[in-house]
Amino acid sequence: MSILASFNIGTTGLNAAGQSMSVIGDNIANAGTFGFKSSRAEFQDLLSASLKGIHGGDQIGSGVKMAHVTGQFNQGTIQRTSNITDLAINGNGFFMVEAPFGNGYTRDGSFHFDKEGHMVNGDGHKIKGFQPDDKGNMTNQLLPIKLGNTTIPATPTSTVKMSMNLDSREEIKVFDPKNPMKSSNFSNSITVYDNIGTAHLVTMYFNKTADGQWDYHAMVDGAEAQGGKAGEMVEMASGSLKFNQKGVLEEEVEKNNSFNFSKGALPGQKVAFDFGPSVKEGGTGLEASTQFGSKHSVARHTQDGSSAATLASMSFNDDGVLTAVYDNGQQRDLAQIAIAKFENNEGLFKTGKNLFKETRKSGQATVGKPGADGRGEVMSKSIEASNVDIAKEFIDLMAAQRNFQANTRTITTSDQMLQEVLNIKR
Question: pTM, whole model, 2 decimals?
């Protein structure tokens, strides 16, 4: 019986060694697969036969079996590419994919946009991410990432912010709207936009009315105003600025404000002029426009309007946020890549096509934003290579081959011993 048992033991060794070579061969075959995670064969001995029953000790082994194939989820090498939709996770976590069987998870970040604007993987499965609200703030709403409309509508100017200094040494002047240049102490121009995105040049004229007091007049050329004549300036808004004896802005007062642009724009557009937080508004006045004894100057001026625009380029940052850049200079956040993590990565089930799905052993996916709560960061224009170590796999392959050969020796030797037993009768 012991000779026959050695046949079985040798057979289990052959089976285990063959299965081990299959695992190693699969690793080597996928050495060039993006995001691939290698596996390791783990063995267990079979139930041993005891010579002393339940008393233990003096046991004869019954062979071996391959008990587990454990995934190795160590980080693969991150390679740089020129494709902005190539993404890699530096750290723990998986991209979420809308797979046919439900939510799939992958480390392969070779993505692109399909003809409908969805971000998809090589098999056309949609990639999930967080969506922004109307103000551009990222929410926890999880949906497939989509570009949507590649054009954005015009935004009419509602506020113009100016930071400037008016020369306190100037003489008092009476403003004449028919001759604004000569009747003002200082002027400055800024471009604003109407509701259909047409740009209009607005010139701001400032004239000193008393010590510490100035008026401003926002005017456009008559060709830009409804009912105006080209070459004649038309006033759209006016107001006054009051400075204290320290030269800081005490108060700003708006007198009238109604922009009636031509060329199809809606009448009555309101454009607020903000010269900074005045003392009356609770500021120090030093952070606002000033009236010092130095020449007129404009430190900066900004306005919040824009023309209609089309998509010019896109980019991902390290937080996985997809930002669209339009040809008018505006930027909008379109989505943020979602990262899923598991308590037990080794418990995930391989479904092929570089995808995993969750199991009872892996636990449920915890979905969050890149870099948060132990999740890895997302790297743009990068892709994670396979984590297979070719040198190690070849060494393991040779060891498995020798193991296979050694087990064949067990069988051939047992066969020779059995042959000797059969020859006893002769």
Answer: 0.73
> Which two tokens mark 118?
């969805």
Tokens of 60: 């004869």
Domain co-membership, 186 together with 257: yes
- Span 83-130, pLDDT tens digits: 999 999 999 999 999 999 999 999 999 999 999 999 999 999 999 999
- Give the CA distances from residue 24 to residues 35, 43, 243, 402, in Å, rounded to whole numbers and listed in that order: 17, 14, 81, 14
Range of the domain at 40: 2-74+388-425
Contacts 24+ apart (CB under 8 A), 263-267: 263/194, 263/196, 263/198, 263/224, 264/196, 264/198, 265/194, 265/195, 265/196, 265/198, 266/194, 266/195, 267/226
When divided into structural domains, the chain yields a total of 3
**67 and 89 share one domain:** no
My answer on whether 201 and 297 are in the same domain is: yes
Tokens of 409: 């020796």
Rg (CA), the chain: 38
The answer to whether residues 254 and 164 belong to one domain is yes
Q: Is there a single domain that holds both residue 179 and residue 297?
A: yes
Which residues are within 8 A (CB) of 169 and not within 5 positions of it... i.e. 6 or more apart?
293
* pLDDT single digits (tens) 271-316: 999 999 999 998 887 789 999 999 999 999 999 998 888 888 888 9
Same domain, 299 and 164: yes
Which residues make Cβ contacts (< 8 Å) with residue 224, sequence separation at least 6?
Answer: 200, 201, 234, 261, 262, 263
**CB 242 within 8 Å of CB 212:** yes
Q: Taking a C-beta distance cutoff of 8 angstroms, is the pair 40, 72 a contact?
A: yes
The per-type count for the chain, helices as H runs and strands as E runs, is 2, 30
Do 359 and 339 belong together in one domain? yes
Q: Are residues 196 and 211 in the same domain?
A: yes
Measure the CA–CA gap between 96 and 379, rounded to whole angstroms.
16
